[in-house]
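Re: weekly structure request thread

Next one in the queue (427 aa):
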Amino acid sequence: MPSTRVWGRLLGVGAAVVQTVEFDEDEQVLVASVRVRACDRYCCGICRRRCPGYDTGQGRRRWRALDLGTVRAFVEADAPRVSCTEHGVVVAWVPWARHGAGHTRAFDDTIAWLATTTSKTTLRTLMRIAWPTVGAIVTRVRADIDAGIDRFAGLRRIGIDEISYKKNHKYLTIVVDHDTGRLVWAAAGNDKATLQQFFELLGPARCTELTHVSADAAAWIARVVAHYCPDAVRCADPFHVVKWATDALDQVRRQTWNALRRQPGGSGWDRRGRRASTGQAQTLKRARWALWKNPENLTERQHHRLAWIAKTEPRLHRAYLLKEGLRHVFAVSGQEGKQALQRWLSWAARSRIPEFVKLGRTIRVELEAIHASLDHGLSNALIESTNTKIRLLTRIAFGFKHPEALISLALLALGGYRPTLPDRTHT
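Done, posted below.
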Protein backbone atom coordinates (compact mmCIF):
# COMPACT_ATOMS: atom_id res chain seq x y z
CA MET A 1 0.00 0.00 0.00
CA PRO A 2 1.53 3.40 -0.96
CA SER A 3 2.50 5.61 1.96
CA THR A 4 0.13 8.38 0.82
CA ARG A 5 -2.83 6.02 1.27
CA VAL A 6 -1.59 5.03 4.71
CA TRP A 7 -1.40 8.68 5.76
CA GLY A 8 -4.82 9.27 4.26
CA ARG A 9 -6.34 6.55 6.47
CA LEU A 10 -4.46 7.69 9.55
CA LEU A 11 -5.58 11.31 9.17
CA GLY A 12 -9.14 10.54 8.07
CA VAL A 13 -8.74 12.15 4.62
CA GLY A 14 -9.04 9.04 2.50
CA ALA A 15 -10.91 10.88 -0.27
CA ALA A 16 -8.03 13.33 -0.78
CA VAL A 17 -4.47 13.20 -2.06
CA VAL A 18 -1.75 13.46 0.60
CA GLN A 19 1.19 15.38 -0.85
CA THR A 20 3.63 15.81 2.04
CA VAL A 21 3.78 15.06 5.75
CA GLU A 22 6.10 17.14 7.92
CA PHE A 23 6.75 17.62 11.63
CA ASP A 24 6.76 21.25 12.76
CA GLU A 25 9.54 21.49 15.33
CA ASP A 26 8.46 24.94 16.53
CA GLU A 27 4.81 24.07 17.24
CA GLN A 28 5.48 20.37 17.92
CA VAL A 29 2.68 19.27 15.59
CA LEU A 30 2.42 17.06 12.53
CA VAL A 31 1.18 18.85 9.38
CA ALA A 32 -0.05 16.94 6.34
CA SER A 33 -0.35 18.89 3.09
CA VAL A 34 -3.25 17.54 1.02
CA ARG A 35 -5.27 18.47 -2.05
CA VAL A 36 -8.77 17.70 -3.21
CA ARG A 37 -9.07 15.28 -6.12
CA ALA A 38 -9.84 16.82 -9.48
CA CYS A 39 -13.36 15.35 -9.56
CA ASP A 40 -14.18 16.97 -6.19
CA ARG A 41 -12.84 20.46 -6.86
CA TYR A 42 -14.91 23.62 -6.97
CA CYS A 43 -18.05 22.26 -5.31
CA CYS A 44 -20.27 24.38 -3.06
CA GLY A 45 -19.44 23.78 0.60
CA ILE A 46 -23.15 23.61 1.48
CA CYS A 47 -24.96 21.83 -1.35
CA ARG A 48 -21.88 20.23 -3.00
CA ARG A 49 -22.92 21.29 -6.49
CA ARG A 50 -20.25 21.95 -9.04
CA CYS A 51 -19.76 25.73 -9.25
CA PRO A 52 -17.45 28.19 -11.02
CA GLY A 53 -14.46 29.34 -8.99
CA TYR A 54 -14.61 32.77 -7.39
CA ASP A 55 -11.17 33.40 -5.83
CA THR A 56 -8.47 31.73 -3.75
CA GLY A 57 -10.09 32.75 -0.47
CA GLN A 58 -7.66 33.34 2.39
CA GLY A 59 -5.03 30.99 1.02
CA ARG A 60 -4.07 27.75 2.69
CA ARG A 61 -5.98 26.62 5.74
CA ARG A 62 -5.52 24.08 8.51
CA TRP A 63 -7.97 21.59 10.05
CA ARG A 64 -7.32 19.85 13.36
CA ALA A 65 -7.18 16.06 12.90
CA LEU A 66 -7.18 13.25 15.44
CA ASP A 67 -3.94 13.01 17.39
CA LEU A 68 -1.35 10.53 16.18
CA GLY A 69 -0.18 8.96 19.41
CA THR A 70 0.93 11.86 21.61
CA VAL A 71 1.37 14.31 18.72
CA ARG A 72 -1.28 16.73 17.54
CA ALA A 73 -1.98 16.51 13.82
CA PHE A 74 -3.28 19.01 11.28
CA VAL A 75 -4.44 18.80 7.69
CA GLU A 76 -3.41 21.72 5.45
CA ALA A 77 -4.90 22.52 2.05
CA ASP A 78 -5.99 25.32 -0.25
CA ALA A 79 -9.41 26.82 0.57
CA PRO A 80 -10.70 28.54 -2.55
CA ARG A 81 -14.15 30.08 -2.79
CA VAL A 82 -16.81 29.28 -5.37
CA SER A 83 -19.87 31.15 -6.60
CA CYS A 84 -23.01 29.06 -5.97
CA THR A 85 -26.28 30.08 -7.62
CA GLU A 86 -28.19 29.13 -4.45
CA HIS A 87 -25.82 30.00 -1.58
CA GLY A 88 -23.69 32.76 -3.10
CA VAL A 89 -19.94 32.98 -2.54
CA VAL A 90 -18.87 30.21 -0.14
CA VAL A 91 -15.74 28.23 0.65
CA ALA A 92 -15.38 25.19 -1.60
CA TRP A 93 -16.28 21.77 -0.22
CA VAL A 94 -13.57 19.49 1.14
CA PRO A 95 -14.28 15.78 1.71
CA TRP A 96 -12.56 15.55 5.11
CA ALA A 97 -14.44 18.28 7.02
CA ARG A 98 -17.89 19.76 7.44
CA HIS A 99 -18.58 23.21 6.03
CA GLY A 100 -17.39 25.98 8.33
CA ALA A 101 -15.55 23.58 10.64
CA GLY A 102 -11.98 23.93 11.85
CA HIS A 103 -11.66 20.20 12.52
CA THR A 104 -11.81 17.12 10.37
CA ARG A 105 -14.99 15.08 10.20
CA ALA A 106 -13.36 12.24 12.14
CA PHE A 107 -12.33 14.65 14.89
CA ASP A 108 -15.86 16.10 15.11
CA ASP A 109 -17.46 12.65 15.30
CA THR A 110 -15.07 11.52 18.02
CA ILE A 111 -15.76 14.63 20.11
CA ALA A 112 -19.54 14.19 19.73
CA TRP A 113 -19.30 10.52 20.75
CA LEU A 114 -17.20 11.37 23.80
CA ALA A 115 -19.57 14.20 24.80
CA THR A 116 -22.45 11.72 25.06
CA THR A 117 -20.52 9.00 26.88
CA THR A 118 -17.83 10.58 29.08
CA SER A 119 -17.38 13.41 31.52
CA LYS A 120 -16.44 16.95 30.63
CA THR A 121 -13.01 16.73 32.26
CA THR A 122 -12.17 13.46 30.52
CA LEU A 123 -13.08 14.84 27.11
CA ARG A 124 -11.12 18.06 27.54
CA THR A 125 -8.02 16.31 28.88
CA LEU A 126 -8.00 13.50 26.33
CA MET A 127 -8.69 15.58 23.23
CA ARG A 128 -6.91 18.78 24.33
CA ILE A 129 -9.78 21.02 23.33
CA ALA A 130 -11.64 23.92 24.98
CA TRP A 131 -15.12 23.14 26.31
CA PRO A 132 -16.93 25.94 24.37
CA THR A 133 -15.49 24.41 21.20
CA VAL A 134 -17.13 21.11 22.17
CA GLY A 135 -20.51 22.88 22.17
CA ALA A 136 -19.94 24.16 18.62
CA ILE A 137 -18.88 20.70 17.43
CA VAL A 138 -21.87 18.97 19.04
CA THR A 139 -24.23 21.46 17.38
CA ARG A 140 -22.55 20.90 14.02
CA VAL A 141 -22.69 17.09 14.26
CA ARG A 142 -26.35 17.14 15.34
CA ALA A 143 -27.24 19.37 12.36
CA ASP A 144 -25.44 16.95 10.05
CA ILE A 145 -27.34 13.96 11.49
CA ASP A 146 -30.67 15.78 11.26
CA ALA A 147 -30.03 16.46 7.57
CA GLY A 148 -30.06 12.72 6.91
CA ILE A 149 -32.88 11.51 9.18
CA ASP A 150 -36.49 12.34 9.98
CA ARG A 151 -37.01 12.57 13.73
CA PHE A 152 -40.76 13.14 13.27
CA ALA A 153 -41.43 9.99 11.26
CA GLY A 154 -44.22 7.84 12.68
CA LEU A 155 -45.21 10.15 15.54
CA ARG A 156 -48.54 9.11 17.02
CA ARG A 157 -48.38 9.59 20.79
CA ILE A 158 -46.24 12.38 22.20
CA GLY A 159 -45.55 13.92 25.59
CA ILE A 160 -44.83 17.62 26.14
CA ASP A 161 -43.13 19.13 29.16
CA GLU A 162 -40.81 21.92 30.26
CA ILE A 163 -37.57 21.76 32.22
CA SER A 164 -35.41 24.42 33.82
CA TYR A 165 -31.84 24.39 32.49
CA LYS A 166 -30.50 27.60 34.01
CA LYS A 167 -31.33 29.96 36.86
CA ASN A 168 -33.45 33.10 36.31
CA HIS A 169 -36.30 31.04 34.86
CA LYS A 170 -34.56 29.68 31.77
CA TYR A 171 -36.55 26.74 30.42
CA LEU A 172 -36.52 24.18 27.63
CA THR A 173 -39.70 22.80 26.08
CA ILE A 174 -39.26 19.15 25.10
CA VAL A 175 -41.29 16.64 23.10
CA VAL A 176 -40.88 12.87 23.59
CA ASP A 177 -42.27 9.99 21.53
CA HIS A 178 -44.21 7.64 23.84
CA ASP A 179 -43.87 4.70 21.46
CA THR A 180 -40.07 4.79 21.02
CA GLY A 181 -39.04 6.65 24.19
CA ARG A 182 -36.94 9.06 22.12
CA LEU A 183 -36.52 12.77 22.57
CA VAL A 184 -37.70 14.15 19.22
CA TRP A 185 -37.54 17.92 19.70
CA ALA A 186 -36.43 20.59 22.17
CA ALA A 187 -36.22 24.37 22.12
CA ALA A 188 -35.42 27.19 24.53
CA GLY A 189 -38.52 28.79 26.08
CA ASN A 190 -41.74 27.67 27.74
CA ASP A 191 -44.56 29.55 26.09
CA LYS A 192 -47.09 29.30 23.29
CA ALA A 193 -44.73 30.66 20.63
CA THR A 194 -42.06 28.09 21.51
CA LEU A 195 -44.38 25.08 21.22
CA GLN A 196 -45.84 26.43 17.99
CA GLN A 197 -42.40 26.01 16.42
CA PHE A 198 -42.66 22.24 16.90
CA PHE A 199 -46.08 21.93 15.29
CA GLU A 200 -45.05 24.19 12.41
CA LEU A 201 -42.07 21.89 11.76
CA LEU A 202 -44.34 18.86 12.07
CA GLY A 203 -46.69 20.21 9.40
CA PRO A 204 -50.49 19.99 9.05
CA ALA A 205 -50.52 16.45 7.61
CA ARG A 206 -48.51 14.95 10.47
CA CYS A 207 -50.40 16.96 13.08
CA THR A 208 -53.57 15.15 12.02
CA GLU A 209 -51.79 11.81 12.55
CA LEU A 210 -51.22 12.51 16.26
CA THR A 211 -53.65 10.48 18.36
CA HIS A 212 -52.59 11.25 21.97
CA VAL A 213 -50.78 14.12 23.66
CA SER A 214 -49.81 13.95 27.34
CA ALA A 215 -48.89 17.09 29.27
CA ASP A 216 -49.44 18.89 32.53
CA ALA A 217 -52.30 21.32 32.88
CA ALA A 218 -50.40 24.35 31.52
CA ALA A 219 -52.91 26.48 29.64
CA TRP A 220 -50.45 27.44 26.90
CA ILE A 221 -49.84 23.79 26.03
CA ALA A 222 -53.57 23.03 25.93
CA ARG A 223 -54.29 25.98 23.63
CA VAL A 224 -51.54 25.08 21.15
CA VAL A 225 -52.52 21.38 21.07
CA ALA A 226 -56.20 22.26 20.56
CA HIS A 227 -55.27 24.56 17.66
CA TYR A 228 -52.89 22.28 15.74
CA CYS A 229 -54.32 18.82 16.46
CA PRO A 230 -57.91 19.22 17.70
CA ASP A 231 -58.67 15.52 17.14
CA ALA A 232 -55.83 14.28 19.36
CA VAL A 233 -56.74 13.06 22.85
CA ARG A 234 -55.09 15.27 25.49
CA CYS A 235 -54.16 13.30 28.62
CA ALA A 236 -53.42 15.04 31.91
CA ASP A 237 -50.32 13.81 33.68
CA PRO A 238 -51.32 11.93 36.88
CA PHE A 239 -48.09 12.93 38.62
CA HIS A 240 -48.93 16.63 38.33
CA VAL A 241 -52.53 16.09 39.45
CA VAL A 242 -51.40 14.23 42.58
CA LYS A 243 -48.76 16.91 43.13
CA TRP A 244 -51.59 19.48 43.31
CA ALA A 245 -53.07 17.46 46.18
CA THR A 246 -49.65 17.18 47.87
CA ASP A 247 -49.21 20.97 47.62
CA ALA A 248 -52.69 21.53 49.08
CA LEU A 249 -51.86 19.13 51.94
CA ASP A 250 -48.63 20.98 52.63
CA GLN A 251 -50.50 24.29 52.85
CA VAL A 252 -52.83 22.77 55.46
CA ARG A 253 -49.83 21.35 57.33
CA ARG A 254 -48.12 24.74 57.47
CA GLN A 255 -51.32 26.39 58.70
CA THR A 256 -51.66 23.79 61.46
CA TRP A 257 -47.99 24.11 62.42
CA ASN A 258 -48.19 27.92 62.59
CA ALA A 259 -51.29 27.70 64.78
CA LEU A 260 -49.54 25.32 67.19
CA ARG A 261 -46.38 27.43 67.19
CA ARG A 262 -48.30 30.54 68.22
CA GLN A 263 -49.93 28.81 71.19
CA PRO A 264 -48.34 29.17 74.67
CA GLY A 265 -45.35 26.87 74.85
CA GLY A 266 -45.39 26.28 71.11
CA SER A 267 -42.02 27.92 70.49
CA GLY A 268 -38.87 28.90 72.34
CA TRP A 269 -35.18 29.65 71.98
CA ASP A 270 -32.72 26.95 71.02
CA ARG A 271 -29.07 26.64 72.07
CA ARG A 272 -27.95 28.98 69.30
CA GLY A 273 -30.34 31.69 70.35
CA ARG A 274 -32.74 31.13 67.47
CA ARG A 275 -36.52 30.90 67.63
CA ALA A 276 -37.64 27.28 67.22
CA SER A 277 -40.86 25.33 67.60
CA THR A 278 -41.37 23.11 70.65
CA GLY A 279 -43.90 20.63 71.94
CA GLN A 280 -46.63 19.60 69.51
CA ALA A 281 -45.44 22.13 66.91
CA GLN A 282 -42.04 20.48 66.83
CA THR A 283 -43.57 17.00 66.58
CA LEU A 284 -45.76 18.11 63.67
CA LYS A 285 -42.78 19.68 61.92
CA ARG A 286 -40.94 16.37 62.09
CA ALA A 287 -43.99 14.56 60.67
CA ARG A 288 -43.73 16.28 57.30
CA TRP A 289 -42.25 13.27 55.50
CA ALA A 290 -44.86 10.96 56.98
CA LEU A 291 -47.55 13.09 55.31
CA TRP A 292 -45.75 13.29 51.97
CA LYS A 293 -44.69 9.67 51.51
CA ASN A 294 -46.87 6.91 50.11
CA PRO A 295 -48.28 4.62 52.84
CA GLU A 296 -46.41 1.56 51.53
CA ASN A 297 -43.09 3.38 51.98
CA LEU A 298 -43.62 4.59 55.55
CA THR A 299 -41.33 3.52 58.34
CA GLU A 300 -42.68 2.31 61.70
CA ARG A 301 -41.93 5.68 63.30
CA GLN A 302 -43.76 7.51 60.51
CA HIS A 303 -46.78 5.25 60.99
CA HIS A 304 -46.84 6.28 64.66
CA ARG A 305 -46.66 9.97 63.72
CA LEU A 306 -49.59 9.60 61.34
CA ALA A 307 -51.58 7.92 64.11
CA TRP A 308 -50.68 10.84 66.41
CA ILE A 309 -51.88 13.35 63.78
CA ALA A 310 -55.17 11.43 63.40
CA LYS A 311 -55.81 11.83 67.16
CA THR A 312 -54.61 15.41 67.68
CA GLU A 313 -55.21 17.16 64.32
CA PRO A 314 -58.25 15.65 62.60
CA ARG A 315 -58.44 18.44 59.98
CA LEU A 316 -54.87 17.80 58.85
CA HIS A 317 -55.46 14.06 58.83
CA ARG A 318 -58.54 14.57 56.68
CA ALA A 319 -56.40 16.54 54.21
CA TYR A 320 -53.93 13.63 54.19
CA LEU A 321 -56.73 11.17 53.41
CA LEU A 322 -57.91 13.41 50.57
CA LYS A 323 -54.42 13.35 49.08
CA GLU A 324 -54.28 9.57 49.31
CA GLY A 325 -57.78 9.30 47.88
CA LEU A 326 -56.74 11.19 44.76
CA ARG A 327 -53.66 8.99 44.41
CA HIS A 328 -55.93 5.93 44.60
CA VAL A 329 -57.88 7.26 41.59
CA PHE A 330 -54.85 6.86 39.32
CA ALA A 331 -53.78 3.61 40.94
CA VAL A 332 -56.98 1.83 39.83
CA SER A 333 -57.52 3.84 36.58
CA GLY A 334 -60.16 2.96 33.97
CA GLN A 335 -63.86 3.14 34.74
CA GLU A 336 -63.22 2.33 38.39
CA GLY A 337 -60.88 5.29 38.54
CA LYS A 338 -63.52 7.59 37.03
CA GLN A 339 -66.06 6.50 39.64
CA ALA A 340 -63.50 6.96 42.41
CA LEU A 341 -62.69 10.44 41.07
CA GLN A 342 -66.36 11.44 41.12
CA ARG A 343 -66.64 10.33 44.74
CA TRP A 344 -63.43 12.20 45.55
CA LEU A 345 -64.78 15.43 44.01
CA SER A 346 -67.89 15.22 46.18
CA TRP A 347 -65.73 14.53 49.24
CA ALA A 348 -63.45 17.49 48.49
CA ALA A 349 -66.39 19.85 47.94
CA ARG A 350 -67.82 19.13 51.40
CA SER A 351 -64.49 18.78 53.21
CA ARG A 352 -64.57 22.40 54.51
CA ILE A 353 -60.87 22.65 53.72
CA PRO A 354 -60.52 25.65 51.35
CA GLU A 355 -57.35 24.31 49.70
CA PHE A 356 -59.06 21.09 48.66
CA VAL A 357 -62.31 22.81 47.72
CA LYS A 358 -60.24 24.94 45.33
CA LEU A 359 -58.39 21.87 44.08
CA GLY A 360 -61.71 20.17 43.34
CA ARG A 361 -62.71 23.13 41.12
CA THR A 362 -59.37 22.92 39.28
CA ILE A 363 -59.81 19.19 38.66
CA ARG A 364 -63.33 19.73 37.32
CA VAL A 365 -61.89 22.14 34.74
CA GLU A 366 -59.37 19.47 33.65
CA LEU A 367 -61.83 16.58 34.02
CA GLU A 368 -61.85 15.59 30.33
CA ALA A 369 -58.05 15.35 30.15
CA ILE A 370 -57.93 13.42 33.44
CA HIS A 371 -60.58 10.96 32.21
CA ALA A 372 -58.50 10.45 29.04
CA SER A 373 -55.47 9.65 31.19
CA LEU A 374 -57.50 7.11 33.17
CA ASP A 375 -58.83 5.52 29.97
CA HIS A 376 -55.55 5.27 28.06
CA GLY A 377 -53.05 4.90 30.92
CA LEU A 378 -50.88 7.64 29.43
CA SER A 379 -48.73 9.79 31.69
CA ASN A 380 -45.62 11.95 31.60
CA ALA A 381 -43.53 9.36 33.47
CA LEU A 382 -41.39 8.79 30.37
CA ILE A 383 -40.97 12.54 29.94
CA GLU A 384 -39.98 12.97 33.59
CA SER A 385 -37.36 10.24 33.09
CA THR A 386 -36.05 12.17 30.08
CA ASN A 387 -36.01 15.35 32.17
CA THR A 388 -33.83 13.62 34.76
CA LYS A 389 -31.32 12.68 32.07
CA ILE A 390 -31.39 16.21 30.66
CA ARG A 391 -30.62 17.60 34.14
CA LEU A 392 -27.52 15.41 34.19
CA LEU A 393 -26.56 16.65 30.72
CA THR A 394 -27.14 20.21 31.92
CA ARG A 395 -24.46 19.74 34.56
CA ILE A 396 -22.13 18.30 31.94
CA ALA A 397 -22.94 21.13 29.52
CA PHE A 398 -22.23 23.86 32.08
CA GLY A 399 -20.08 26.39 30.26
CA PHE A 400 -21.83 26.20 26.89
CA LYS A 401 -22.60 29.73 25.79
CA HIS A 402 -25.90 29.01 24.04
CA PRO A 403 -28.77 26.62 24.86
CA GLU A 404 -28.56 25.27 21.31
CA ALA A 405 -25.42 23.35 22.29
CA LEU A 406 -27.25 21.76 25.26
CA ILE A 407 -30.21 20.89 23.01
CA SER A 408 -27.86 19.29 20.48
CA LEU A 409 -26.16 17.25 23.22
CA ALA A 410 -29.56 16.10 24.52
CA LEU A 411 -30.75 15.09 21.04
CA LEU A 412 -27.53 13.19 20.37
CA ALA A 413 -27.71 11.37 23.73
CA LEU A 414 -31.47 10.78 23.96
CA GLY A 415 -32.77 11.11 20.41
CA GLY A 416 -31.95 7.59 19.28
CA TYR A 417 -29.31 8.62 16.73
CA ARG A 418 -26.06 8.71 18.64
CA PRO A 419 -22.86 9.57 16.78
CA THR A 420 -20.50 6.68 16.13
CA LEU A 421 -16.73 6.55 16.34
CA PRO A 422 -15.03 6.87 12.95
CA ASP A 423 -14.16 3.64 11.09
CA ARG A 424 -15.65 1.38 13.78
CA THR A 425 -17.33 -1.81 12.66
CA HIS A 426 -19.37 -4.05 14.96
CA THR A 427 -18.90 -7.79 14.62
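The chain has a mean pLDDT of 89. The two ends are 25 Å apart (CA to CA).
Next request, please.
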